[in-house]
Automatic annotation (TrEMBL):
Name of the protein this chain belongs to: Uncharacterized protein
Origin superkingdom: Bacteria
Organism ancestry: Bacteria, Pseudomonadati, Pseudomonadota, Alphaproteobacteria, Hyphomicrobiales
Gene source species: Rhizobium rosettiformans
Length: 189
């Protein structure tokens, strides 16, 4: 029993007591192409932060230096409650900035707001302590890891030194960064 739906004749068939619409193959292919094209052309609207460059610049300067509730309060005071996104959107924007900084190879110094001593709660003990990071950069690879740990414990104290595995992971990270830099320099020569 054929039915007309939007000027297309669709036949209904029963298979295993279930009703199915039977559509000619060329019409189905056209429908799929049109649907994919619509999905490919869809662009989400920009966020309040992306629409307001002054707000974006303000957030780039402040994020990572203060707790998020303070950042939100400062934004509301400066731009008004109706022009400020939610705290979750601000945090997502911060994560986007951090990803971009890492992808661009900017060692977290993007726009002057992501120095190693202001990375926030996700930073390791080494990243939060520039003196410890510099000390480890100088001695890692010159001594066995046990001696490095003993030296750091004597110099910085047990509460300021991370675990042996964290120090080893930091050393691996430094080695990867050095290899990347050496690889980039050899490309330009």
């Amino acid at each position: 029993m054929p039915k007309k739906i939007k000027y297309v004749e669709i036949e209904v068939a029963k298979i295993d007591r279930q009703k199915y619409a039977v559509v000619p193959l060329h019409e189905y292919e056209a429908f799929v192409r049109e649907h994919r094209l619509k999905r490919a052309c869809f662009r989400p609207r920009p966020s309040k932060i992306d629409q307001n460059p002054e707000l974006a610049a303000f957030l780039a300067d402040v994020l990572g230096t203060k707790p998020m509730p303070e950042v939100m309060a400062d934004c509301v005071a400066k731009f008004g409650a109706e022009n400020v996104p939610t705290i979750n959107r601000i945090y997502a924007h911060w994560q986007k900035l951090r990803r971009q900084a890492i992808l661009d190879g900017e060692k977290r110094s993007m726009l002057g707001s992501f120095s190693l001593d202001r990375l926030g709660p996700h930073a390791s003990k080494i990243e939060r302590n520039p003196e410890l990071a510099a000390h480890l950069a100088n001695i890692l690879g010159t001594k066995p890891i046990d001696e490095v740990m003993a030296d750091c414990l004597a110099k910085f104290g047990a509460s300021n030194v991370p675990s042996k595995s964290a120090v080893y992971n930091h050393w691996q990270k430094l080695r990867r960064q050095a290899a990347e830099i050496a690889g980039k320099e050899s490309d330009y020569e």
